[in-house]
Amino acid sequence: MMPTKVWIFGYGSLIWNPGFAFEQRQVGYIRGWARRFYQGSPDHRGIPGSPGRVVTLVADTQSICWGVAYQVAGESLESIFSYLDEREQGGFRRHQVDFYPKTMTTDAPAPAVTTAAVYIARDDNPHYLGPASVPEMALQIFHSKGPSGLNRDYLLRLAESLRGLGVTDVHVTELERHVRQLEAQSKDGPSD
Ligand code: SIN
Questions:
Q1: Are 10 and 55 a contacting pair, CB within 8 Å?
Q2: Is 160 considered catalytic here?
Q3: How far apart are CA 167 and CA 174, in angstroms?
Q4: DSSP secondary structure letter of residue 50
């Protein structure tokens, strides 16, 4: 039987643009995963042959990944999943994770763990790019664009959204710093 309420966890563009109707939105985290700009995007923030970089999750027992979970009604789930499967088709697959809501006050009772669906692009998909140095990734992000817009806007929007949630992700912050430097340099123009 279809569950009456289902949670979907977003850690990338789903944070600022879920694109589907939801009943509740909750800030929180998942354990054992690190957010990384390791997935190539030939369809949203780049083009085939010149992909951008978007976030995926890399298994890491030491890490937690902050994001947002959306609660949706079971009867809308089929259409939401078909929308998201299409949107995340460039290498992402659906998985189940345990979601931990952020406790707003320290004296609140421990939050219940909820299971949530999450889209992860694993290292065996054809668009996976994997790690590179921060300056290299920043350069690729700075120069890439695709049908959904500039790759740098995706990064800057993510960084801004995470700040809005009151959380820090060093990987994202470092890339943001480098991309902002590249932007400043390009505004200054070439030096003689
Ligand atoms: C997500 O936001 O949860 C998946 C990755 C993305 O679409 O940016």
A1: no
A2: no
A3: 14
A4: B
Distance between CA atoms of 117 and 140, rounded to whole angstroms? 29
Domain ranges across the chain: 5-187
The CATH superfamily of 5-187 is Gamma-glutamyl cyclotransferase-like (3.10.490.10)
List, chain by chain if needed, residues with CB within 6 Å of any ligand 1 atom: 10-14, 54-55, 88, 119
Separation of 188 CA from ligand 1 center, angstroms?
33
CB-count burial class (<10 Å; 0-12, 13-18, 19+) for 19:
exposed
- Taking only the tens place, the pLDDT of each residue in 33-92 is 999 999 999 999 999 999 999 999 999 999 999 999 999 998 999 999 999 999 999 899
Report if pTM > 0.70: yes
